[in-house]
Amino acid sequence: MKKRSALGTFLVIFGIVGLLAVFFNNDKSPLIGITSFLSKEINDGQTVDVSEIKNVDINTGSIDVHVIKGNSEEAVITVQGRATKTFIESLQLNAMSKGDTLEISLDGERKNSLGWGWSNVTLTVELPEKQWNELAVEVNSGDIKVDKLSFDHADLQANSGDIMTDNFSVLTALTVNVHSGDIHVKEYEAEKIDFKVDSGDASFFNGVGELIGSTGSGDIFVHAKDLLNDTTLETGSGDIFIQLDNTPTSLAVDFNTASGDTTMHKDGFTYKNSSSRDEDLRGTFGTGEIKLNVYSGSGDIFMK
User: Fold this and answer.
1) Range of 299's domain?
2) Most buried of the four, 47, 70, 163, 171, by CB within 10 Å?
3) CA distance linking residue 199 with residue 235, whole number of Å
4) pLDDT tens across 279-289, in order?
């Protein structure tokens, strides 16, 4: 009975708030009225001199993070969006230089007194164009997006959210880890990419670099003009698709799935299967100097 009474009280309060929001919202839709009544806008920012900065370290809780190329010689950091009033009022942007590292974080991110919080807030970091050393971004619940930048090394981590990069160049290693969410990497260049997704898909479009990674439950898609580096892909439960614009001249292929089919739709492939099972596919294009190893526990593997 107490639970029902509490629920009833909450619904009555929510209904009153909704009526007030609609009444004072100048004939806008009820949903917009309630959202405006319960939320607040934020538009905060600061600039930091990065002439001596080589590394960028970003850590946030439950907002999206965009790291993009800017037009200024300084780093321009902004926090924009709308969220519950308690959430907004508790936020505090911290950006400071420590040695050769720019550290950026958001303190606060509290829920309201009823135990819930809603936010649609983005932290945007605009960086001047230069060869940076290391980028580290860690988000608990939110998306990460990196555009048109170049670093020696990068480490992107999201507990719950998507990670997206576009025109991102990493001289050595790019590490991308997601617990629950998708990875989308476009127009990339790296010596090596290590990725791991526990639950979600991983896709790589039009890039160059050694790929090593896995998904626990999700598909993997790779689309490139050529496969010029060793590639190792694995999924516990999901399909793996590899699409190349050009026919490889020197590629050794080893496909294996415990439960599923393997398919090769590419001319010039020489089969060297040790088994007649559809689950196994082995062979080469040319001399087979570059290695492509693919495994799926439960799913299909397809190459064209």
Assistant:
1) 201-304
2) 163
3) 10
4) 789 999 999 99
